[in-house]
Amino acid sequence: MIWLTWRQFRVQAAVVFGAIVALAVVLVVTGRELADSYAAGLAACTASGGCSAFLTNFLRDHDAQYYGLAAVTMALPGILGVFWGAPLVSRELETGTHRLVWSQSITRTRWLAVKLGLVGLASMLAAGLLSLAVSWWATPLDEAGASARPRLSPVVFAARDLAPIGYVAFAFVVGVAVGMLVRRALPAMAVTLAIFVALQIAVPLWVRPSLLPPVEATVAITPENLRGIGMSSPDGTARELTIAVEESGSWILDSDTVGADGAPVGALPAWFSECDPIMLTGPPTDPAVRNCFDRLAEEGYRQHITYHPGSRYWTFQWLEVALYGAATLAAAGFAFWWLRKRLC
Amino acid sequence: MTTLLRTRELGKRYRRRWALRDCTLDIPAGRIVGLVGPNGAGKSTLLNIAAGQLAPSAGSIEVLGGHPASGPAQLAKVGFVAQDTPAYAALTVADHLRLGARLNPRWDAAAARNRIERVGLDPAQRTGTLSGGQRAQLALTLGVAKRPELLILDEPVAAVDPLARREFLQGLMEAAAEYELSVLLSSHLVTDVERVCDYLVVLVDSHVRVAGDVDELLSSHHRLTGPRRDPGTLPAGQHVVSVSHTERQTTLLLRAESPIHDPAWTVSRVGLEDLVLAYLSPPTAAGRPALEVLR
């Protein structure tokens, strides 16, 4: 059965693994240059006293590759679920070849177990390889962007380390199970893609934030932690502050400016419109800037922040794998049950 | 091993429709069994259940003394050539033989190679480019080289031209003789069955209409022709299968265990095709149960 599975699968395997190995080679070569230029630039800017400009430029210069690779890493589990998972059984049902293989001296449970195990492990290996190469390549950029785009933030998180392995296992097994239900390859592929994309949107929005209780903190607004001032109303009058938390790499879920009574304020006071243009750009030593921060503090304005600290990164990675792993096992259990009870 | 197939009130239901119902059969081993009936009569369903591909929804079934699909050992005893003889289009003929070798403990590699050679298949050819007849031959080779005790074939020659059909059935007969196979074969063509089978099962509307040894069936069925009369007045032990009247004449096809002595009738033998056709037509209006199993 292993031979047959391999015989049916080898072309697809060669295409995907060929592409991943080629990409990995490119990443190893360019990754070393990237790490070297980051180390050199960091040394230079530390010596000259300020690194924020260097970090901003460094991140901006590699934006295209950075997000491109994140997109590829996030897409691979979906692609494998759709092209390896969904047709795995449905194509056999569609062409009737399941009746050929089921009439050999092998139980259909074993048949499915070998197909699911072998191709499933191959898909996890593919996603693991890609994730490893991309994560390693992006190490300097993740370090440089620890506060601007922390590894815990949804886009980066899904394209790093262990998470893609969990995603691909799930996408693949769901593809197989959907294929057994739908019995036709093309609709099965579409349904698999829809399920996977829906979960990739739903989990970071509604599930992952509450896997652990977030940390809540109310902090003073200082020149050190103020990162941005944005408009929060269409007419441009209300202002929203972006405040960094102490721990770098934190994933900020919610950030509200609160008044003296601790309740969120709808809008900052009218006098703030004079501070708005200078608070970020002016030097903290400027009396006008100083005055703005002091006045915010005097009137009791502080920032209430709900966040997951960056130190939870690996905990979240393992939780994500466990979550998707459990869903994978459930889908596999369903597939075997369906094969025995219904698919006849 | 004395029974090939033993079913008791076997049935298969899809949602609310019964594809097979109250099927009770006892077929002795070592026979070449032909299963005939119109399309949709339940032939495929019965064969798929016997091969362990389908689970019955009612009744019980034993194939060669075991429960179908009870495990690899039972699967190894029963070969199955599915309808339309499916094959992996992207794989070659040789790949299919390797598939058979890997998945069957009793695989006869030499026999498989010889058969492929004898029927003129190119081992390097992808099966997607084979003709229907060639694919049927490949499927038969896989079924035979598996060395089963029973080979089940579901309409193997339905989509095959007459010449290829003849070659296929000939190959089947040779294999059955060589390996002492029992064969269970379905067809909607009586001529196929007539050529190869020594046991007949007629399935109509998901019910078994008649089943028995071909020779016994032929010797116990008679065509009676005589002046027009009501068939209700026949002696006991004679069962009317079909009646047809012209203005002055009545023709009966009936089953009788004893010879017919009534001088009013001209008695003649019945061919297998006429016999099957008589059973395929709706039950007689005489109200006699036409559904009986001959043992």
TrEMBL record, chain A:
This is ABC-2 family transporter. Keywords: Membrane, Transmembrane, Transmembrane helix. It comes from the Bacteria. Pfam families: ABC2_membrane_2. GO terms for cellular component: plasma membrane. One of its GO terms (molecular function) is ABC-type transporter activity. The chain crosses the membrane at residues 12-31, 65-90, 111-138, 162-182, 189-207, 321-339. It comes from Prauserella shujinwangii.
From TrEMBL, chain B:
SMART domains: AAA (SM00382). Residues 5-230 form the ABC transporter domain. InterPro entries: AAA+_ATPase (IPR003593), ABC_transporter-like_ATP-bd (IPR003439), ABC_Transporter_VariousFunc (IPR051782), P-loop_NTPase (IPR027417). Keywords: ATP-binding, Nucleotide-binding, Transport. One of its GO terms (molecular function) is ATP hydrolysis activity. It holds the Pfam family ABC_tran. It comes from the Bacteria. This is ABC-2 type transport system ATP-binding protein. CDD domains: ABC_DR_subfamily_A (cd03230). Gene3D superfamilies: P-loop containing nucleotide triphosphate hydrolases (3.40.50.300).
